[in-house]
Amino acid sequence: MERRHFLKSAGLGVAAGTTLLAAQVQARETAAPQKNAPWLAARTEAQIAKLERVKVDLVAPPMVHKHEQKAGPEPRVVEFRMSITEKEIVVDRDGTTMHAMMFDGSMPGPTMVVHEGDYLELTLINPASNTMPHNIDFHASTGALGGAKLTNVNPGEQATLRFKADRSGTFVYHCAPEGSVAWHVVQGMHGTVMVLPRDGLKDSAGNALHYDRVYTIGEFDLYIPRDEKGNFKKYGSSAESYGDTLEAMRGLIPSHVVFNGKVGALMGDGAMKANVGETVMFIHSQANRDTRPHLIGGHGDWVWELGKFDDPPAKNLETWFIRGGSAGVAIYTFKQPGVYAYVNHNLIEAMELGAAGHVLVEGDWNDDLMKQVSPPGPIKG
Ligand SMILES: [Cu+2]
User: Fold this and answer.
1) How does pLDDT run across 102-161, given as a tens digit for each residue?
2) Helices and strands (H and E) in the chain: how many
3) pLDDT one-digit tens code per residue, 29-62
4) Pairing between strand 119-126 and 76-90?
5) Average pLDDT over residues 296-309
């Protein structure tokens, strides 16, 4: 029963004022949570055509393309181009291979940053040298399976999709071709869109937050099939690997859990870097499976676990939870130098399956925060 009718039949809605109040209550209960901001106003095609257009060159993760943290009130049309790559890659230190599918040649695909109210316009290219149709489902968008229905591109085709970023936050995007969505996702096809509030990020008290660096981490659970002896199998093509991979996927136990496409991708030359005193944003996405990022020796000063900037961020977290099919954000100001491990704190997945990376932080050690009062030595007395 509708609330208004319920109130009336309960004898509470007799006065016109009370009925109006009930209607307002109902309106509040059913309205979408977006703001009534001028940049979110509905626009005609002619009005959209008059907006400023910006072309952005994407960069491979963990880096994120240059962007402003705040934007003026006038929305823009932000143009991106991504080409899909089908390619055999090595996924661990033993040389195990997989026929990956990737947005713009990286796992995860590049992170796209816009501001709330902007129009994101992506041209998706499927080169003729590829063998499969692909598309893109943007969790940040509204309609047509997140755009997947409007971006189905066969090899040799391209399509352009525009959507309005009508709410802020971090959102996963992924390939979603009919009949093989899960396979394309676990073979490498996911990434993140970050829609920043136009007036920038805020802490839970409403104070402005700024970051000096941003890294994007895409976590993937991989399902590489094994032979009778337990060794990983190698295949001549994606199509050849499909049947066995599907069988491995149905067992739900990943052979690898990796950040950015490969065990150790974010270590050594690939390690993330920062200086003491710098505030670093970590965007963490997982399109298929839950995960729990943790920075060993540090914290999440401000964490949007759900990745949605209209929510106040949690503070001082030790570990945060990213549900499969979403992207979350943590920012942390480094206070000590050293090598920090950034891990999935299911430590089996981190240490045995690969979900670990490093942040190398330079600067001066602070004895006040931590001091080795006496080094390990023989037990005394
Ligand atoms: Cu695909």
Assistant:
1) 999 999 999 999 999 999 999 999 999 999 999 999 999 999 999 999 999 999 999 999
2) 6, 21
3) 556 776 789 999 999 999 999 999 999 999 999 9
4) parallel
5) 98
The answer to whether the Cα torsion of 170, 154, 107, 344 is positive or negative is positive
153 Cα to the center of ligand 1, angstroms: 9
Residue 297 burial (C-beta neighbours within 10 Å; 0-12, 13-18, 19+): middle
Residues around ion ligand 1, judged by CB within 5 A, are 101, 134, 175, 184, 189
Find residue 259's DSSP bridge partners.
219
ω into 133 cis (within 30 of 0): no
d(CA 333, CA 242) in angstroms, rounded, equals 44
Catalytic residue numbers read 134, 137, 139, 174-175, 184, 189, 294, 318-319, 345
Fold annotation for 214-362: Immunoglobulin-like (2.60.40)
Query: Please, where in the chain does CATH 2.60.40.420 lie?
Result: 38-198, 214-362
Architecture per CATH, domain 38-198, reads as Sandwich (2.60)
